[in-house]
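Q: Give me the 3D complex with 6-O-phosphono-alpha-D-glucopyranose.
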Amino acid sequence: MTLKKQSIVVAGGGSTFTPGIVMMLLENLDKFPIRSLKFYDNDKERQKQIADATEVIIKERAPEIEFKATTDPEEAFTDVDFVMAHIRVGKYAMREKDEKIPMKYGVIGQETCGPGGIAYGMRSIGGVVEIIDYMEKYSPDAWMLNYSNPAAIVAEATRRLRPDSKIINICDMPVGIELRMAEVLGLESRKEMDVRYYGLNHFGWWTDIRDKEGNDLMPKLIDWVKEHGYITPKELEGASEEEPSWEYTFGKAKEVQWLDPDTLPNTYLKYYFYPQDEAEHSDINYTRANEVMDNREKHVFSECNRISNIKTAEDAKLVADDHASYIVDLARAIAYNTKERMLLIVPNHGAIENFDAEGMVEVPCIVGSQGPEPMTQGSIPRFQKGLMEQQVAVEKLVVDAWITGSYQKLWQALTLSRIVPNARVAKQILDDLIEANEDFWPVLK
Ligand code: NAD
Ligand code: G6P
Ligand code: MN
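A: Here is the predicted complex, encoded as C-alpha cells.
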C-alpha cells in the first residue's frame, strides 16, 4: 500500500529539539512519507540557523521534500496536515527567571512544576492558542501535535478556550522512562510492553506492565526501581550519557517509588514529594536553564552553523532523538489509522472513574484517524487521588487567572501548589514573577 505523503509545519522551528526531530523524521520516511516540511518561528534569526543546516541535510538525504522556513503565519500554516508544536514563549532567558525567582524564597524553581511551571504556563497559553488559530484559519483539517510546555496547563487552557480544535498534547517523559524500563528488563523495544498508567502530565504512575503474552513485568521492575530508581544497569556500571541533573533525577526516582510500593512513578513527582531536597540540591547561580544553554543549545547551534558553513552534513553530529519517534507514531496513528496505544493528555471523561470528569489526565489511548480514545483505568487510591485533586486545581486556577486576568486566582494557584510553603511566600514569588513577566502575561487585577 502506498502511504499518502504528508505536509508538516514545525512550530518553534528555532527549538533546540528541531534538528533531532528532523533527523528522526528523515529516518522514518518509509513509515511516514513527507512531501513538504516547513518551519515556523517568531524569532527569524534563531530559526534561520537551524533552517540553513536543515536545508543542507534535506538536500543530501531527501531532496524530494520541499523545505521552507518562514515567520509568516499564512505561508507556514497553509496546506499542512500536521502542526508539530514545541514553542517556548520567552525562551531560555525567561526559563532562567522561572527557575531563579522562587529560589530567592527557598522554593524550588522548575520548568514545569510549582511556581516556575505556573509562570511558564501564563506565558505559553497565548502563544499556543495563536498557533491553533493560524492552523484553523489556513489548514482547517490539520491536527496539532503539541509538546510545548507546561503541557498540563496548556492542555487545560486549550480544552477551555478551543474545545473543538484538533489538538493533542503529548509528553516524552513516560517514553523516556519506558526506554529505561525496557533496558532493565533486557527487552529490545519498549513497544514489547503494554502499560496501564494514570495521572496528570508530569504527575503519574504505572500500575501494570506486561509483555505481549500477558506476563506481569511489574515485580522485576519494582525490585529494580526501589533500589536504583530509573538508573539503567549500564549506567550503574558507570556508562552514563546523561547530564548530571538528569542522572540525579533518575536516581531520585527510587525515593519517589517508596511512597507507593505497588506502582512505578513519573520522575517529576520528586518535586512534589521532596521539594526541600530539590531546593537544597540546586544552585541559584546555575540552574537547569544554565546547564541547557551551556550544553544542548550551544551544541545544536554550533553544529547547525558548522553544517551550513561547510555546506555538507555528511559528518553531522546531529542525531535523531529516539525519544522523538513517539511523534511519528502519533502522526502515523492519525494519518493512517494505525490504532496505536499511546499515553496522551486528554479530558478525563471517566477514564479515571473517581476523578474530575473535566480534568486533563494522562492515560493510555488508542489513536486512530478520529483522534484518541482513552482507555479506562478504573478507580484510583486515596493517596494519588488527593495529590491529583490538589494539582489539577492548581492547573485550573492558572487558566482561570489567565482568562479572567485575576491576581487572586493566581495567588490561590501558587498557594495550593504543594511546592510552595505558605500563602505569604506565594505572594512574594507572585509579585516578583509579575514584574519579570510584564511583556508576556495578561495584566492581572
Ligand atoms: P527553545 O527555546 O530552544 O525553542 C523554542 C522556540 O520557540 C524558539 O525558537 C522561540 O523563538 C520559539 N517561539 C517562542 N514563542 C513563539 C511563538 N509565540 N510563536 C512561534 N515560535 C515561538 O526551547 P526548547 O528547549 O527546544 O524547547 C521547546 C519546547 O518543547 C518547550 O516548550 C519545551 O518545554 C518543550 N518540550 C516538551 C517536551 C514534552 O515532553 N512535552 C519534551 C521536550 C521539550
Ligand atoms: C522531559 C520532559 C519535558 C521537558 C524536558 C526538559 O523530556 O518530558 O516536558 O521539557 O524533559 O528537558 P531539559 O533538558 O530542557 O531540561
Ligand atoms: Mn514532558
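A quick observation: The longest helix spans residues 114-138.
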